[in-house]
Amino acid sequence: MHCIVGGRVQGVGFRAFVVSRARALGLVGWVRNGADGRTVEVRAEGTPRNLDQLRDALTSGPTTARVQSVRCESCTTLGPMLEFEVRR
Q: Which residues are catalytic?
């Protein structure tokens, strides 16, 4: 799954929130801030049910975030990854 989350999602602990949720769901992949300063990008792999749960979590984020949009689509696999991480 590849998602772009827009709104007040940078500088509010959003990436740490995503890592925590994704790891709890047994997902692998990564999260990073978008270069535009207003989005966060997420790539995740796992079971459809767990990906749906992560997508639901992205719509709210941490209490300090103000999510305005979440766009997700299916994508090709990421290749061998062992965990969920923050990318720069």
A: 15, 33
Model-wide pTM > 0.90 = yes
Count the neighbouring beta carbons within 10 Å of the beta carbon of residue 75: 12
Taking CA 49 as the corner, what is the angle to CA 74 and CA 5, rounded to the nearest 5 degrees? Answer: 50
| DSSP code per residue over 13-71 | SHHHHHHHHHHHTT-EEEEEE-TTSSEEEEEEES-HHHHHHHHHHHTT-STT-EEEEEE
Using an 8 Å Cβ cutoff, are 87 and 30 in contact? yes
Assess contact for 38 and 6: CB atoms under 8 A: yes
Q: What is the pLDDT of residues 46-67, one digit of tens each?
A: 999 999 999 999 999 999 999 9
Fill in the DSSP letter of residue 82: -
